[in-house]
Amino acid sequence: MNIYELRRYGTWIILAVAVAMVGLFLLVSNHLVRDLTMQERERMEVWASATREMAKVTTAAMEAESLSDAEPDIEFLLSILTSNHTIPVILADADGNILDQRNFELPEPIDSLAPYDLSPANRRFLEERLASLAESSSVITIDIPGGTTQYVYYEESSLLKRLGYYPYIQLLVMLAFIAVVYYALNSTKRAEQNKVWVGLSKETAHQLGTPISSLMAWMELLQQLGVDLETVAEMNKDVNRLSTIASRFSKIGSRPVMEEADLNTIVAHAATYMATRISARIALTVNTSPSPLPVRMSAPLFEWVMENLIKNAVDAMDGSGSITVTVSSYAHWGIVSVADTGKGIHRKNYKTIFNPGYTTKTRGWGLGLALARRIIDQYHRGHIYVAESEVGKGTTFRIELPLVH
């Protein structure tokens, strides 16, 4: 198992732990809300019982035409009825007439001298709430002696409502925290990778510079010594190739100059160069677009990407097969497809193959596709990805570059 698989599994483990923690918090919060809901129901049942007893005591006292014997009971019941300062409640008769209400935020203030004289706006507000509560389970029936029936309708208190929202707020906070941590880790990783890329590129260009200069001097000396000109010319091609490679590495370490060029021309040039350096048993076919496709690019770097893709395609085949390079366009994008008949790629590795260090070759560094993605994504504002692949049949890489209009 390589480092990228370990990191992928580690990410899934962290996400699983985070989801488990969120689930635990939601479970605890839901239990808390359920317990408080039951407590408020019990309080309302006590309040309804006090209302019923108050009606019985008042009726008995009125029949006896004396309140003196019932005063202690009335004071106790009133203390229960007035102790509710949090739960919104409506007391209504069987015909839906509102007899009392408490703890609602009414549209208009209530006259303290006439608390039961509701204004039209307040009455309309309470009737709407009553109609809504009548369809819920938050109703308690009060059977009063004498055949009278009243109903207590109640809502959750503001505290219970806030607690009901709390688990979801907690969930959003945790998701935001995870997103921030993930973004910070990714940004840090990318910054470190950029420093490594720049350092590696600059150092490689610097190290290649000295032997290339020396080889150029030797080429001139060989000509003066009368070495066969054809031999010197072939050697000079390789020296120029090394110079091109050093130039490419130096461009990776800094922002390259972007110039307008025809995508057909650049792709054809890169494919022609590679055609002379691959096995004769591998057929390399190039299909260009019938019309020019102008794009802004760094030609040396883009040719490097093409050479990497073609070389990888060659390595994916056991010495024989075919590679088809196709240039086309779609909407505002110029498209280059590189299809081979090689061993193919498993779908789970479609993105992993672009990570630095990932390689299936025993002697590979795993930098070619990583460099290609950096060149296309960051410098050319395009996309490079595995369009399709089937194990044992081949792979198609696709590059998309914005066209110049």
Our measurement of the CA-to-CA distance between the termini, rounded to an integer number of angstroms, reads 47 Å
Strand order of the largest sheet: 6-8-9-11-10
Helix content: 40-55%
**With helices defined by DSSP (H or I, 4 residues minimum), what is the helix count?**
8
Shape type: rod-shaped
How many strands appear in the DSSP assignment? 11
Oligomer: single chain
Rg, rounded, reads 40 Å
What is the strand content? 15-25%
H and E order: HHEEHEEHHEHEEHEEHEE
- Which structural class do the helices and strands define? alpha+beta
* Uncertain residue segments: none
State the major sheet: 5 strands, mixed
Give the overall average pLDDT.
80
Fold and architecture overview:
The chain is an alpha+beta fold and 405 residues long. It is built from eight helices and eleven strands. The strands form three sheets. The protein has a five-stranded mixed β-sheet. Strands 2-1-4-3 form a four-stranded antiparallel β-sheet. Strands 5-7 form a two-stranded antiparallel sheet. Helix 1 packs antiparallel against helix 2. The two termini are 47 Å apart.
Task: Produce the secondary structure layout.
Layout: H1 3-64, H2 71-82, E1 89-93, E2 98-102, H3 120-134, E3 139-144, E4 148-154, H4 158-224, H5 229-252, E5 259-262, H6 263-275, E6 282-287, E7 294-297, H7 299-315, E8 321-330, E9 333-340, H8 368-379, E10 383-390, E11 394-402
Parallel strand pairs: 6-8
Antiparallel strand pairs: 1-2, 1-4, 3-4, 5-7, 8-9, 9-11, 10-11
Helix pairs in contact: 1-2, 1-4, 4-5, 6-7, 7-8
